[in-house]
Amino acid sequence: MKLCKEIKSERGQTKSIATEYSIKGENLHSYEKFKDLGVVLRSDLSFIDQIQSTKANRNMGVLMRHSKFFCADTIKMLYLTLVMSVLGFANVVWAPSGKGDSKLLERTQKRLLRYICIIDNFGYHEQNITYVQLYMGYELTSLKVRRDSVIILFLRDILNSKVESVSLLEKISFHIPPRIGRKRNDLLSLVLSN
Fold this sequence. Notes:
Elements: E1 6-7, E2 22-23, E3 26-27, E4 30-31, E5 33-36, E6 39-42, H1 48-51, H2 54-66, H3 72-87, H4 91-94, H5 99-120, H6 131-137, H7 143-159, H8 166-170, H9 184-193
Parallel strand pairs: 1-4
Antiparallel strand pairs: 2-3, 5-6
């Protein structure tokens, strides 16, 4: 019973109804947030703890303090290992949907890219280089593109039954447009109707 936890999520500003849940006579403790399999769950259903990852920022600080004499490729490899692995962990569950949260995540990678640029150019960082030019120049992608590709791969795995989840599979629906025949009259009527 120690592993079972209760978390309440409510809509709006209504006051919560006092309830107690129990399993086999043992009351469950109610939490505002708790960590489950490395993902922080909050009662307001936001994943701000994942987005403002202190572990990723701490790893980034260690990397930047101790890599002054490393080449750009080594720093990039360390970034992918120490920071990107934290930022990308379980993002199928907590991927941000808003632009503000996404920008907050991108800020970490932007900080590293500016640092690598300064190391590469012997202390000089050209101000008019955009973030896109920076990550393309160092053969990285934006964190949003990485998250989107992981989500697409997860969707593929659900459709190919590599992830067994009937409830998720039931929520996926496809719209397949009707097939257009090969007859000349069908194509002609299609062109004329537009």
